[in-house]
Amino acid sequence: MAIIRWRPMFDTADVDKFFEDMPMMPGNMQAFTPAVDVYHDKDNVIAETPLAGVDPDKVTVSIENDVLKIEGKVEHKSEVDDKNYYRKEVRMGSFYRAVALPTHVKGDQAKAEFENGMLKITIPKAEEVKPKTIKIAVKKNKTK
Question: What is the pTM of this model?
Answer without folding.
Answer: 0.62
